[in-house]
């Protein structure tokens, strides 16, 4: 294909993906910083597309450059309007330059979002979003819990020694599932956890196995899910109808079904994935992708095209395939009996033994 036509198709596809992400911002929950993460990714995607337009300027006719510039400006306007609607005081907006009589030079400093402070980079001094422990609430309000709320600290319960190596917290009264600060545990959420219909979070886990697939398959999927600061672990995250934000995961295996997956600052992670859009990685290395194991598929998943291998690396702006990710070969993919017989736990098997059988740590 002619390079100009190929770039044009790439540009149109990128615009369509970014516009779809903008359209979905209103449905993304603000819990655990999910909405801001989504905004960050859209901003980074626009910046990447601007860089690509600037890089292709020498081989692009002036008319096409003008059309590209106007399209990106329209996309920026759409994003700013949506940000104003969902977060009126957001600092993450593009700085608009004065209109030009001809066209916008995407390579000019005043139009380069990388030079506009606060445009799409994360603010290291911003307050860290609060992640809530797994609790059962009588009050519908999320945030500061009233003194009279009936709370049950599931993370404390999980830490208590039990007769079995596998922990099965009921979460039957919980509205939010958040497992944090655990080490060396095998946790399986039973069907009773299906009542927890708000976004979930798994944070600060080490040497753990967490299986959330049963309640999300039998009940309703999570609206959103945040995975953060997890190492040397196996996470079967179940089904998520909205976005999954994955940050700071190392030397682990993830199993995820979601509409959107955004992955930051991860290293040496295998992801078995069913995703309705392009997975996005940023500041990651050693990422390997594979399709969702058959045993976790549902009838609803089969109706959605799986784009597990259409990964976009927002930090790889050069031509060609990003070296930061690859796909698992047929002999590298875990066999189905591992998922059906080993991952659920075997009599007398320790967490360490089970992790070793699934290939953690990676050899």
TrEMBL record:
Q: Which residues form the C-CAP/cofactor C-like domain?
A: 190-316
Report if keyword Acetylation is assigned: yes
- Where does the UniProt annotation locate this protein? Cytoplasm
* Cellular component, GO annotation: cytoplasm
Q: List, alphabetically, the Pfam families matched.
A: TBCC, TBCC_N
Give positions of region: Disordered. 90-130
Q: Does the keyword Nucleus apply?
A: no
Q: Which InterPro entries did the record assign?
A: C-CAP_CF_C-like, CAP/MinC_C, CARP_motif, TBCC, TBCC_N, TBCC_N_sf, Tubulin-bd_cofactor_C_dom
Q: Which UniProt keywords apply?
A: Acetylation, Chaperone, Cytoplasm
Give any GO molecular function from the UniProt entry: tubulin binding
**Any single biological process term in GO:** post-chaperonin tubulin folding pathway
* Subunit structure as annotated in this protein's UniProt entry: Supercomplex made of cofactors A to E. Cofactors A and D function by capturing and stabilizing tubulin in a quasi-native conformation. Cofactor E binds to the cofactor D-tubulin complex; interaction with cofactor C then causes the release of tubulin polypeptides that are committed to the native state.
- What family is reported? Belongs to the TBCC family.
**Protein name per Swiss-Prot or TrEMBL:** Tubulin-specific chaperone c
Organism of provenance: Purpureocillium lilacinum (Paecilomyces lilacinus)
């Amino acid at each position: 294909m002619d390079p100009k036509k190929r770039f044009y198709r790439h540009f149109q596809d990128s615009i369509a993906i970014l516009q779809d992400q903008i359209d979905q911002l209103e449905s993304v929950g603000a819990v655990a910083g999910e909405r801001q993460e989504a905004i960050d990714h859209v901003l980074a995607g626009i910046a990447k597309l601007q860089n690509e337009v600037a890089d292709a300027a020498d081989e692009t006719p002036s008319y096409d450059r003008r059309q590209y510039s106007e399209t990106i400006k329209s996309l920026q306007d759409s994003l700013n309007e949506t940000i104003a609607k969902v977060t009126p005081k957001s600092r993450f907006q593009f700085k608009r330059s004065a209109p030009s009589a001809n066209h916008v030079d995407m390579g000019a400093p005043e139009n380069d979002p990388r030079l506009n402070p606060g445009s799409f980079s994360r603010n290291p001094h911003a307050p860290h979003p609060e992640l809530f422990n797994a609790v059962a609430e009588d009050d519908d309000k999320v945030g500061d819990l009233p003194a009279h709320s009936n709370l049950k600290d599931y993370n404390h319960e999980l830490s208590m020694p039990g007769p079995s190596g596998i922990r099965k917290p009921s979460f039957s009264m919980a509205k939010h599932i958040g497992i944090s600060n655990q080490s060396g545990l095998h946790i399986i959420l039973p069907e009773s956890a299906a009542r927890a219909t708000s976004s979930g979070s798994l944070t600060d886990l080490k040497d753990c196995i967490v299986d959330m697939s049963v309640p999300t398959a039998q009940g309703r999927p999570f609206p959103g899910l945040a995975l953060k600061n997890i190492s040397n672990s196996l996470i079967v995250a179940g089904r998520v109808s909205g976005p999954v934000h994955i940050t700071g995961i190392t030397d682990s295996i993830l199993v995820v079904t979601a509409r959107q997956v955004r992955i930051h600052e991860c290293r040496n992670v295998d992801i078995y994935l069913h995703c309705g859009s392009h997975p996005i990685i940023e500041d990651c290395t050693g990422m390997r992708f594979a399709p969702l194991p058959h045993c976790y598929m549902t009838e609803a998943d089969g109706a959605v095209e799986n784009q597990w291998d259409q990964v976009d690396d927002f930090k790889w702006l050069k031509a060609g395939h990003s070296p930061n990710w690859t796909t698992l070969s047929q002999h590298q993919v875990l066999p189905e009996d591992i998922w059906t017989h080993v991952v659920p736990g075997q009599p007398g098997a320790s967490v360490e033994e089970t992790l070793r059988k699934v290939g953690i740590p990676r050899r």
